[in-house]
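The aim of this short unit is practical: by the end, you should be able to scan a pair of folded records and say something sensible about each. We start with the first protein, listed as its amino acid sequence and then its structure tokens.
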Amino acid sequence: YSIEVGFSLLTLIACLRLWQRHGNKSCIVVLAAGAGSWWIIETLLFLLGTRSNGEDGSGLVDACVLFGLPINGVTGGLLAALIRGVAEGGVITILGLLPCDFYRGRHAIKDKVLLAYVAAAYVSYFATTFASTRKEKEVGASVDSRRELFKPGSIVATAIFVFVPLAQLVLAANQPAFRRRALDLLLSLSVLGLLTNYQMYFCNVRWVEISGTTEEAYMRAPVAMEHLILVYDAVVEIGFMYLPFYTVPWAMGLIDDDEVTGDEAG
């Protein structure tokens, strides 16, 4: 989890600089919303036994090792939940939002220090997958994480996350700045999701399985189905499901979209 901590800190610094130097506080709000929401989900999954702190065949996550120090038991599980909450909830949303805000608020691109932090965050984010590259896809094996995509509970949760931002976009017909930024973010997150999924695919740490024969619990999905699922995951389970981390704080009055195109502070 050391790399996750690294790119999370870099992203936090970038968000704070955007706020202090450029008057864009919405990034720090979105980071907090995404990290807090995902942390709660990860903590509940750990407490309910869906996540395990170790590689014990329940497959569920890597053991918590931070800067070479293994942290076992409940402490390790809760710490891992916090790190995943920030890295997989807050940071990913920000990595999608930053290109949108740089495009709309071009003055921020002149800030070389900010760009250095952002570039380092992206590099370390993608380095996480490169660090776990495998020689081949271990289809059917005991892996760190396996989930069933279309379980009833997953379908309901996905439907809620998709419905909320879509309803907000429809109801906010007289808010062009919000709609433009939300749609930009949806596109950016989908592209980030595709890049992430296919990086993991070619590094042999992500693939799609289907139920196998009686001798094999799982087998590799047909090629067309596999790529369709990878695209679905990027657009729906990253693009749409992360979008509420921006749209809900906006609805609560915590985000001002006009600040993106404002002049530099100070």
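Turning to the second protein, read its sequence before its tokens, just as you did above.
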Amino acid sequence: MTCSTEEVVKYAILPECRKAGKMRYCEVISQNYGRSHVGNVTVFVSHAWANAWGLIPMMLLHSFHPKRCAELPVFFFLDVFAVCQTQHSVTRGELSYQDSEEYKTANLEDLCNFDITLRNAVRTFGVMDSTGVGVSDRDLCQRAWCLFEFATTLTLGNVLSFRLAQIRQKKGQGKAILRRSAKDQPALLFGDVELVYAKPNKLKKHSSLVDVKNASCRVTSDLISVIYPRVQMLGGGDLKTGLQLVNDMVQKGLDLLEGILEWKDNEVSY
């Protein structure tokens, strides 16, 4: 539960995709568990690959539990599932690809469709580890992709919401496990961990640090080929204007954020 999302992609998603002969993990899910598990996006999930992977399913399960969510089913767009991942995706820096041109092309096409996906989603949901606030590769407010996603969401007039929390191991219990249920469906057991939400002001005080120009990006070529061209369009053809517009828009959005709440531990324990 505490391994990073990057590690999950490298050691689980990539091998499973290559083994199944599929480019995207959502295609593996559809093949193994049926097409009913894949549908049109409802919620776009924004997150940082350096944060704990377990935070994502736990927070989504809690925030969009059937008892709390009026409209069902909910389909999440999660990049590690929906985007064609390459060996380059999990290699820091600008090292050469180990995948074919077909995989590189598919990866770039998927990334270029992010703005379309954001338009089709009802909301963008930011998942953030409260222990990563202020850390460049873990703080969503300091990640170029996340800032682009936030600005696009606000430009479209869609809902932007956030949750800050951390995973805490319950004393005297073992590690969380992944198992298959009686119906051969994937199931995460949360009996030995709990989700602890942060205080509402934990994120707001960092909104003044938003700066898309100096934000970090795991694959720097994404900035040149995908993010900057779209930011430039937001600025009416001027990149500098677009960068400032993104900064102003996200800072204002963070100040007005819906859904930064403080919860009691027993309300978010599984």
